[in-house]
Amino acid sequence: MKFSKKLGQHILIDRGVVSRISRYADLKRTDTVLEIGCGTGILTEQLLKHAGKVYGIEKDRRFVKLLENKFLNEINEGKFVLIEGDALKVEWPEFNKFVSNIPYQISSELTFRLLKRRYELAVVMYQKEFAERLVARSGKKYGRLSVVARAYATIKILEHVKAEAFRPRPKVDSSIVIIKPIPEINVKNMENFERLVREAFSSRRKKFGKIAEKLGIDIPEDLKNERPERIPPEVFAKLSERL
């Protein structure tokens, strides 16, 4: 089968990695799992072994047919529900765990959608560079994603995965990330917080004093000459209360 570059298809083939992803998710028979980008079903198979029910969302019709044949019994038993469509557009079912090797080009949009859901745990395979941005606390990789994510969850990189674990082999390495819906920072008004962070990192080369002035908020003198990439998430949270 020819894989689609347009859809960012890189199929995980390393069964050792698949097994560890499942183990990180600590799956039980009482769990309902959502997997996005099922591909050839290597991870799906592992999820079905340990979880009570699995929902899969797959956009590529070729993979949908393959999965329907491969998991015919599980589909008939109601243990596996396959949804054909774009994960950014279709309605997500209720789930308590999210376990996926996601298409990397939708990482940002998909992550923001996930963070705003109710769930217990997520184990996600990301492009390594994206994962490092997600957990960054300062510097060039630190940005809107890093800050906003902390208002929703606690996030940790569990391990890095070499490109050889995928077919076709991508040009970059990947990372397995665990996300728990336990906010690292306290945000009183999410709309104001996200507005401040968005404004700050759309002008990240500007000094923070100029950004605050544009938004009409007073900030401490010691922050006025700082760049957004040096402002901690908890400070953004506090300052957003002044909007």
From TrEMBL:
Protein keywords: Cytoplasm, Methyltransferase, RNA-binding, rRNA processing, S-adenosyl-L-methionine, Transferase
Binding residues for S-adenosyl-L-methionine: H10, L12, G37, E58, D86, N101
EC numbers, comma separated: 2.1.1.-
Pfam family, one: RrnaAD
Subcellular location: Cytoplasm
Gene Ontology CC terms, in alphabetical order: cytoplasm
Domain Ribosomal RNA adenine methylase transferase N-terminal residues, every copy: 17-183
GO molecular function, one term: RNA binding
Alphabetized SMART domains for the sequence: rADc
Ribosomal protein among keywords: no
Alphabetized NCBIfam families for the sequence: ksgA
Biological function: Specifically dimethylates two adjacent adenosines in the loop of a conserved hairpin near the 3'-end of 16S rRNA in the 30S particle. May play a critical role in biogenesis of 30S subunits.
Name this polypeptide is given: Probable ribosomal RNA small subunit methyltransferase A
